[in-house]
Structures are given as C-alpha cells and as structure tokens.
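Schema walk-through. Below, the input block comes first and the output block second. Nothing else is stored per chain. Lengths vary across the set, and this one has 415 residues.
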Amino acid sequence: MAKDIIVPAAGESVTEADIVEWKKESGDYVEMDEALVELETDKASMDLTAEAAGVLTISIDDGTVNVGDVLGSIDTDAAKPASSSDSSSSEEVVSSTDGAAEAPAATAAPAAAQTTSSYAAGHPSPAAAKQMAEKGLDSSQVQGTGREGRITKEDVANASPAKPDAPAKEAAPSVQAPRVAGSREVRREKMSRLRKTVAQRLVNAQHTQALLTTFNEVDMTAIMEIRKKYKDQFKEKNGVNLGFMSFFTKAATEALRIHPIMNASVDEGEIVYHDYADIGIAVASKKGLVVPVIRNAESMSFKEIEQSILNYALKARDGNIGLDDMEGGTFTITNGGTFGSMLSTPIVNFPQSAILGMHNIVQRPMAVDGEVKIRPIMYLAVSYDHRIIDGSDAVRFLVEIKNRLEDPARLLIDI
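--- output ---
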C-alpha cells in the first residue's frame, strides 16, 4: 500500500511553501517519524516526517508547492533491506564451510562495497543538479560531501566555476592594469521565503505608512540596582533570569493603556483600537528575523513575561518558531542593543502602527542635582505611523515609558 506525502495546512494565510531540502532519496527505506523533507513558508520552516515505514518515492523534488500537493509516497508493503552486517555474516558462513572459497570471498566484499559507494559518488541531488546547471558546472568540478559522496546544494554553492582557458588570457592587451590581490569571486544565494516575506512587509510599511521616529534617553540606574539586589532570589524562586525585557514590556503595556492610539492600526479607512496588549518581541534566528507575540502582556507578571521570552528565545535558536507563535501582535519591541546598537530608527511591523527600539547601555556623564555624575544611559526610539498618531502622542508615550523605567516602583503601584 502506498501512503501519500501531502503538504499540510500551515495557517489561514499560508497557501504555498518552498521545498528547501529532501533529507532522503527516492528508493530509500525510511522509518516511521523519520524526517523526510524540509519546507519553508512565508512565516516559518517545518519538517515533514514519515507517517509509516517503507520505501520512499519522490514525486516533486524541488520548487514551490501548494497546500494539499502530493510530494511523494511511501510503499508500506516493501520489505526492509537486509543490513550490511547480515550480508557479511552469510559470507563468513560460506568461507568457513569451504576453505578454497576463503580468498575470493574476502576480496568480493570490498568490491561490492565499492560498487555501492560509487553509485552515489559524484552524483548530484535533484536540487544540486539544478544549481549546477545554473552555474555551468559539471560533476568533475564539484566535490561531493553528502552521503556516500553525493553532491549536495552546499557543495555546489562552495564550488567555483571553471577558470577561463589559457588562450583567452593570451588575447588580452599587452599592457594590463595591476591585479588586485585577494579573491574576486562572487557568490549568489537564493533568498529564503521567510526573508522575502520580511522584506516585502518592511517595504510595504514604508510605502503605505507615514513613518516618523522620536527619541529619548533613560537612566537605567534604578533598574540595574534592582536586578543586582534581587536577581539571585528571583531566579531561585522562578527558575528564570530577571532581564531588562520584562521591565520594558511592563512599562510599554502601561504606556499603551494611557495612549491607546499607539496600540491601534489602520484598516480600510478605519482606526482599530485594541483593549489588550499583544507585544511582539523581535528575535534574530538562523532563518531570519521573527517576531513571536506575548499575548495579553498587560496582565502578566514579571515571571510570566520572562518565561515567555525565554521559551521563544529557545525556539528561535532551534528554528522551531511556529506560525501560531507569530500570529497577531498590536505593538512590537526590538532590542538592537544586544548587538551593540547605539541608536536606530526601527521600521514599524506592519499592520501595527508603532514600535519601540531599545539600544545598548553606555556609561555617560549626566547632570544630576547640579552635579556631573556617570550614569548608565540607554537611548530609546519610537517609530510610528504619523497618519493616525500625532507627534505629541508619540512623545508623551515615550516619556511615560522613561518615567516608569527610571522609577520602577511606579510599575508596582500603577501610577
């Protein structure tokens, strides 16, 4: 019986996906739950696993597929091939019963192994063959590092096109410009579907919104003292670190309650207000920028916020951020300070209307009560859609955040 491998539904707005890589070849015997193929949608990547054991047949090996398409099938009636250990043990039995056959049997086994490995060696996978054709390469120019010497897409990407023949050099003018030392090769890499989607949304935000950014600075002294004093007790009790993001998230949700226009969006000539704060936290992953959402952050404790951020960070690291994790969001916080950014003008995460940018903390001289003191200062930035948000709203919103961060007690007594 053949069991079809079907592209599953992956969210309401997701209708197609790109085939990134088949992890198995046609004719391979696969076990149940073994990863078969990696797909990438507009929002995340996912692995399709075998729903049964059997022999794999691939129908679509590359390109873009739609939800419901059949990528291949698994023949569940096919017998599992005998292992190499079973084969070698049977040869040993033959050798022991007939002494004259010992020498030929010993040489026959390596020959069979050589035949098996030479079948895959130097042969490209379907995706690799397509890239080789685009770059004008043949198998002799690419070193295969895949299973049994098979040529993979990575091997093709790392290979260089053949250099021009010697006669081409002889036809060059006798007087040549000095050659620049070092490599001059160019490497092309296809944009992932996730990267293209992020790019499209950022451009869409700039084309459809009247973006403006306002700045302020915050003295982080009080928060750093609280973290220094209570971070060990907080981690011992809750199992997570007391980070800066929980302070900023709480301060932002209270500022959004006071200035609800910052938490709104535009929809076909109407302003849509939200009575809740679903805060998107921009996270850099190996697949690109992802923005998982902390839902109803306004009702969460410091512990709950820190646990949510930690879970998303681990998912992003492992490439397991799902579509459900990124759906919705009414306001976004991005922290370029983790990479050393001093100041930036973040782009609004469309269709939201505002985004808060955090930056690195730097010791700076400040005038405090008529005296110059060295304080840990962070620059804050709020980018917003000027079509519905006035400059005064954005400035006062940022001041509300600044006041709560510089006097964290206000976060506890709600003033």
